[in-house]
Amino acid sequence: MDIKTHIETAWNHTLSHIVPLLIITLVLVAVSVISLGILAPVAMAGYMHALLLLVREGREPSASDIFSQMHLFFPLLIFGILVLIITLIGFLLLVLPGFIFALLASFFSLYMIPIMTDRKFGLIDAFKKSFFTVTRENTVDHIVVFVVFWGITALGSSFMITALFCQPLATLFLVSVYDEVIRT
Asked: What is the pLDDT of residue 69?
């Protein structure tokens, strides 16, 4: 896997579609904040699906794409609650087990949302497919993808204005990698 190519792909798509990406990212942030985070996972699913279609077909994303995956609301809500509970238990025992669990859950579910939106898999099947994808072969490549994705996202979360640019960049990078991994 050529990480540099995926970064360039994400960068080129971000620059060539900057206005629609800013609008859809603003809608994503607004929906997440107004709903107090309850709609954040399902809004992110719509966001990822829209950006996957941008990478694959060149289809320009629109604000309505955020709401295109509402059928995933309950599965993603249940998954989020389970991860939160187990992480909190880990933090109560000692801080390190909670941190390790949260890190592993994020890594193993790296491609879960794109799989759910693209392949129409259920939660458990999508998690299994994501788990086997990141652990099957080229695990080091997937670790690098994970670090780059979360690094760009963390950089963007430092200021609101940078989040508007870094979130689409990071997500485009992830769905570009996903598209290559799933095609092979």
From this structure: 94
Question: HSE (CB half, 13 Å, CA atoms) of 164?
Answer: 12
CB-count exposure of residue 144 (10 Å: 0-12, 13-18, 19+)? middle
User: Which parts of the chain sit beneath pLDDT 70?
Assistant: 184
Reference 74, options 108, 18, 119, 123; nearest CA is: 123
- How far apart CA 99 and CA 123 sit, in angstroms, is 23
Residue type, 164: L
- Note whether 134 and 126 are within 8 A (CB): no
Question: Which percentage of the chain shows pLDDT scores above 70?
Answer: 99
8-state DSSP, 157: T
Contact 181, 1 (CB under 8 A): yes
Environment class of 72 (CB within 10 Å of its CB; exposed 0-12, middle 13-18, buried 19+) = buried
